[in-house]
């Protein structure tokens, strides 16, 4: 076990499955302190041979990837958890037979049939959001005994609290703590996107309630999978889900007037109360409009770092110039709109932003790259080949930034998207495998630094420092710069 690695995951969904299962028994929304319960956020559920085979063949991930036991075993010290009320259009879709629709959705998500029923009839996303926040609060600070020792997670309001907890951990070897930073994925949580007229006053009142939370979100993802009356989203679904769930509405839209009001309020930094914007899931038009707001330099858009909590590069120069600019690395990547253009990677770096690399095979590599990736029956070789898919992303970013004469190693982090309906890198199934991912990334980094020339001398650094930056240091530094006082509004 690797409890002291100090890793950071900028984006995952520890509560998605246990919160869903909590609907099977009253009271709904109870986070069970007994770690053997399916309704516990500590429920340890590593993938069986069947689970791995199912994932390999279908891409479906039924097992839990980011429960707090796996996070603890993987040495994760800080995790940005994503509050995410599932959009009803996943389960209100083109599959007409209700029973078949329930079974299909439950099979794909592993969240339970009662939760599916609730989402099918949901009329208030905001109440669901508050319930999820409460789910985390229930076991906040509660010590859990595992065979390997005592563990706890603690919701934090700012980076000072993270530093205090880390210091206490170093002094007290009896209990290991995971710091939990809240984020939100999809501002449909304000109660939009229900395919009915939006009540602007209700939306803005709900936003004020979030800002007044004791543990306010560090950042929010504005768009998600479906039109939310705030800004246009990128196509994000694939396979059978894409065939059955219609994402068309909003795919070519930019910001609405309401969306602009929401973003201005979120970025208001009065009394250090700014909530950052995660641009993942915005379509290129919405992203361009957001950059134009930032480029105005007018409050509240001044000095805003750009956040991608869980993303990938698409290898294309820009939205207006959709050609491969760096063929050696770019041709291995997936050229889709939900991934990010070279021009955007440069912008993120220049903004002192952060780019969390997601661990989803369907996003980080092209179909040809996946098809050409070598196979093996030996786990170590599988890990080598599959970790290279992630390294391809890293290499593209650092060569791109180096060519711009920028320091290339301070904006890359990990945003796994574990438990977010992803197809993980084979053999890196859960957060428990983070130490293995670090080891294999270090091998790739070592080989790369030995055999490649970079323009800037300070971009040629040791392999262990590269991995420390990606897995830990960069995210910690970003949090330190931007996760400020965050005192609740009285």
Polypeptide structure, described:
The chain has 490 residues and is an alpha/beta fold. Helices cover 40% and strands 11% of the residues. The chain contains 18 helices and ten strands. It has helices at residues 16-21, 49-58, 68-73, 98-109, 113-120, 125-138, 159-171, 200-211, 239-244, 257-267, 284-295, 327-330, 342-350, 361-364, 367-372, 379-403, 434-451, 463-482; strands spanning 7-12, 76-83, 144-146, 149-155, 175-185, 219-221, 276-278, 307-311, 354-357, 412-414. The strands form two sheets. Strands 1, 2, 3, 4, 5, 6 and 7 form a seven-stranded mixed sheet that branches. Helix 8 (200-211) runs parallel beside helix 10 (257-267), helix 16 (379-403) crosses helix 17 (434-451) and helix 17 (434-451) crosses helix 18 (463-482). It is globular. The relative contact order is 0.13. Mean pLDDT is 93; it is low at 486-490.
């Amino acid at each position: 076990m690797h409890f002291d690695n100090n890793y950071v995951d900028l984006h995952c969904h520890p509560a998605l499955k246990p919160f869903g299962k909590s609907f099977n028994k009253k009271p709904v929304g109870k986070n069970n302190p007994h770690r053997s319960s399916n309704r516990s956020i500590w429920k340890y559920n590593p993938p069986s041979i069947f689970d791995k085979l199912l994932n390999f063949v279908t891409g479906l991930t039924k097992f839990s990837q980011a429960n707090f036991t796996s996070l603890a075993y993987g040495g994760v010290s800080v995790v940005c958890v994503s509050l995410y009320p599932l959009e009803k259009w996943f389960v209100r879709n083109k599959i007409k037979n209700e029973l078949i629709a329930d079974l299909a959705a439950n099979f794909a998500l592993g969240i339970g049939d009662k939760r599916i029923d609730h989402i099918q009839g949901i009329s208030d996303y905001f109440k669901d959001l508050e319930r999820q926040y409460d789910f985390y609060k229930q076991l906040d600070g509660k010590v859990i005994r595992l065979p390997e020792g005592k563990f706890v997670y603690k919701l934090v309001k700012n980076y000072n609290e993270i530093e205090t907890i880390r210091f206490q951990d170093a002094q007290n070897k009896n209990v290991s703590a995971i710091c939990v930073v809240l984020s939100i994925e999809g501002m449909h949580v304000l109660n939009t996107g229900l395919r009915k007229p939006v009540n602007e006053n209700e939306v803005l009142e709900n936003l004020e309630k979030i800002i007044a939370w004791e543990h306010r979100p560090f950042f929010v993802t504005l768009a998600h999978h479906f039109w939310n009356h705030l800004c246009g989203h990128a196509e994000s679904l694939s396979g059978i889900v894409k065939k059955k769930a219609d994402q068309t509405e909003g795919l070519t839209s930019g910001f609405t007037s309401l969306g602009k009001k929401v973003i201005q309020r979120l970025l208001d930094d009065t009394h250090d109360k700014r909530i950052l914007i995660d641009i993942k899931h915005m379509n290129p038009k919405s992203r361009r409009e957001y950059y134009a707001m930032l480029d105005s330099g007018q409050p509240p858009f001044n000095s805003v770092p750009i956040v991608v909590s869980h993303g990938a590069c698409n290898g294309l120069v820009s939205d207006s110039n959709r050609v491969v600019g760096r063929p050696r690395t770019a041709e291995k990547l997936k050229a889709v709109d939900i991934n990010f253009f070279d021009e955007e990677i440069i912008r993120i770096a220049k903004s002192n932003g952060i780019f969390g690399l997601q661990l989803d095979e369907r996003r980080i590599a092209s179909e040809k790259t996946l098809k050409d990736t070598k196979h093996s029956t030996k786990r170590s070789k599988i890990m080598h080949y599959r970790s290279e898919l992630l390294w391809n992303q890293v290499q593209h970013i650092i060569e791109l930034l180096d060519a711009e004469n920028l320091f290339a190693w301070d904006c890359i982090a990990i945003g796994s998207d574990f438990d977010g309906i992803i197809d993980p890198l084979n053999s890196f199934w859960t957060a428990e495998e983070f130490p293995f991912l670090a080891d294999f990334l270090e091998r790739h980094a070592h080989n790369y630094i030995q055999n490649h020339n970079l323009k800037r001398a300070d971009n040629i650094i040791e392999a262990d420092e590269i991995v420390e930056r990606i897995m830990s240091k960069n995210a910690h530094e970003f949090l330190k710069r931007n996760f400020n006082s965050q005192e609740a509004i009285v």
